[in-house]
């Protein structure tokens, strides 16, 4: 199994951040999403944070080197004067990229994956998640697939659906309507709980691997052996918090003949997101019809 290097990490994050800096519409959309998801306590400082964002935009668009430098310094100073939040972490990663401080930029982006992993992987930096994180999470996908198959096992004989490595994705898509027609409320609830746990497991693994990537970045001389961490496999809700069970098997990014299986599992996830979307839509329609009858 190949070892992740600091150069590989920096290449992934620098490429992504450079693309964001070159695409104003995408940049504004991401920053708008991050502002929307700020906590009420952070919203109290929204004017100052917006000022930092506007100052950064000025640095991006100006051709005057002196104005660019002063704008970047001011924006950084504004952001560092307030507690860390998703918006400031992302802005700082852009500022440091413009300043050619690529390690600092990478760390700021990784901070977003640590403090707000769900926002980072789904809204702010899905490309980084797929290329740096998800490739390490094959055991999570296998766990998810096994749990989902167990929940739906009672439907297999009715619908003829089989979730094995040789399944054809298009056949599975066609079978979605059959699954929906046979799914009861209990199965739908279990699948919904599984989706929730799956999201929690992805979030926790993001936090675990942020620490791993930062260790690699900190090992400047390359004189330490940094072991790849075990993957968190299962979320267990105890009391008012989640606890996590780890997979002791080593993770691998060398898929080879496993690549097809990996792609099939990813496609299964898409299929079941569609199932949930259709199911929720049907439930909403039923509720609307009942209200109209009443």
UniProtKB/TrEMBL annotation:
<dbReference type="Pfam" id="PF23568">
    <property type="entry name" value="ARM_LIN"/>
</dbReference>
<feature type="domain" description="Putative E3 ubiquitin-protein ligase LIN N-terminal">
    <location>
        <begin position="50"/>
        <end position="222"/>
    </location>
</feature>
<dbReference type="InterPro" id="IPR052858">
    <property type="entry name" value="E3_ubiquitin-ligase_LIN"/>
</dbReference>
<protein>
    <recommendedName>
        <fullName>Putative E3 ubiquitin-protein ligase LIN N-terminal domain-containing protein</fullName>
    </recommendedName>
</protein>
<dbReference type="InterPro" id="IPR056512">
    <property type="entry name" value="LIN_N"/>
</dbReference>
């Amino acid at each position: 199994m190949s070892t992740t290097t600091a150069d590989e990490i920096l290449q992934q994050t620098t490429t992504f951040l450079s693309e964001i800096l070159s695409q104003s519409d995408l940049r504004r959309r991401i920053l708008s999403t991050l502002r929307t998801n700020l906590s009420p306590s952070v919203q109290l400082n929204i004017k100052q944070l917006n000022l930092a964002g506007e100052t950064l935009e000025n640095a991006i668009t100006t051709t005057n080197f002196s104005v660019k430098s002063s704008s970047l310094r001011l924006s950084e100073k504004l952001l560092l004067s307030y507690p860390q939040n998703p918006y400031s972490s992302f802005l700082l990663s852009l500022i440091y990229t413009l300043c050619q401080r690529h390690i600092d930029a990478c760390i700021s982006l990784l901070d977003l994956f640590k403090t707000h992993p769900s926002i980072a992987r789904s809204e702010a930096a899905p490309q980084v998640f797929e290329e740096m994180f998800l490739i390490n999470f094959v055991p999570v996908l296998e766990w998810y697939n096994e749990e989902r198959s167990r929940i739906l096992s009672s439907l297999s004989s009715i619908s003829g659906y089989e979730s094995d490595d040789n399944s054809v994705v298009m056949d599975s898509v066609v079978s979605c309507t059959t699954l929906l027609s046979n799914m009861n409320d209990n199965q739908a609830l279990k699948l919904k709980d599984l989706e929730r746990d799956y999201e929690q497991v992805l979030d926790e693994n993001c936090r675990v691997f942020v620490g791993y990537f930062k260790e690699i970045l900190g090992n400047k001389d390359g004189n330490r052996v940094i072991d790849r961490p075990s993957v968190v496999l299962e979320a267990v809700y105890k009391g008012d918090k989640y606890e996590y069970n780890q997979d002791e098997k080593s993770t691998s990014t060398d898929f080879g003949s496993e690549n097809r299986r990996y792609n099939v599992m990813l496609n299964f996830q898409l299929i079941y997101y569609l199932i949930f979307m259709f199911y929720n839509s049907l439930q909403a329609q039923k509720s609307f019809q009942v209200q109209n009858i009443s």
